[in-house]
Design brief:
Shape: elongated
Strand content: under 5%
Radius of gyration: 16 Å
Mean pLDDT: 83
Helix content: over 70%
Number of helices: 5
Distance between the termini: 27 Å
Largest sheet: none
Structural class: mainly alpha
Number of strands: 0
Low-confidence stretches: none
Length: about 100
């Protein structure tokens, strides 16, 4: 599993630090030491949550996707139904993938 230890206070700090570093540097140049330093946690804390750097990267990307897709899924139950939700999803997806970061 990508997530080992659950969502603790350090978990969000780790994800935020990882997202910032992965956006700023190529994947292979981001070290777990750098993520730990940026998050203000130990490397042991990172590994308590994530098996390895790949799993941390996947979790960071997944967080961004959930920020776009989860609200649209909830809106599928509103008036306008599935068609309106799919239109909204398309618009939000394009806006998300064309962001500078």
């Amino acid at each position: 599993a990508a997530l080992r230890g659950g969502r603790t206070p350090g978990w969000q700090a780790i994800l935020e630090a990882a997202k910032a570093l992965f956006l700023a540097e190529p994947y292979d140049r981001v070290s777990m030491d750098a993520v730990a330093a940026a998050a203000g946690v130990s490397k042991v804390t990172i590994y308590a949550h994530f098996e390895n750097k790949e799993r941390l990267f996947v979790a960071a990307i997944s967080e961004g996707c959930r920020a776009v897709f989860d609200p649209v899924a909830v809106n599928a139950e509103r008036p306008g139904g599935l068609a309106a939700a799919l239109h909204e999803l398309g618009v939000e997806f394009v806006l998300y993938i064309t962001r500078p970061d």
